Amino acid sequence: MASPVALITGSARRIGASIARTLHGHGLRVIIHYHHSADEALALADDLNRQRPDSACLLQADLDRPEAVRELASQAQACFDRLDLLVNNASRFYPTPIGQASDEDWERLVHSNMRAPFILSQALAPALAASHGSIINIVDIYAEKPLREHTLYCMAKAGLAMMTRSLARELGPAVRVNGVSPGPILWPENGQDNQQAIQQSTALKRCGQPQDIADAVYWLSQQAGFVTGQILAVDGGRSLSYSQG
Fold this sequence. Notes:
- By secondary structure, this protein is α/β, with parallel strands linked by helices.
- It has helices at residues 14-25, 38-51, 66-80, 103-130, 151-171, 195-200, 210-223, and strands spanning 5-8, 29-34, 56-60, 85-88, 134-138, 176-182, 231-234.
């Protein structure tokens, strides 16, 4: 039987690349989506294809543009003529203080964190149903407990969390839909001033690793056949005694 196929958005680097490598290491074929990170995406695809020929495909798309998202869905189905898993990982994160938030901020944060995952889920639902596949959304603990001056980001991730639960009902029983909600794993590239305080707010008193998220995605997608509509917190216990980051 042909090995299953996963599309991971924003998978050229950071957590997305770890997810792609982990799924590939477990025998899946992977579709690596990127926007600007062409060099990293090509290097990752080349590495995976050296390990197992014709096991990684590369697609570029701007997730801010609905027509580009729909084209990505079409191209993804053509890569290997099947699709078993959609991982909505791509995300933007930056502050939007209420007095400074613009229409452009709204579009950039809501489109990448909520609208693009919905469009991809909508477009790929028939292919995923045909393979009895699943969708994994990368959410955030800030979907439930807001981060100061990040209202638009928190709103978008809260919408993604509700989309996860709602689609689990709508697409079941053929397609399972779950989420992974990371805590402190990799700091945003524009940084946060209180990294030590955030780390100390976790029950485990440390940061996690991208591999922790990748392992959760693998388990939910490939081993948790009776789990749907759930959002798994992979946060070192930070959500147990939350202090604002």
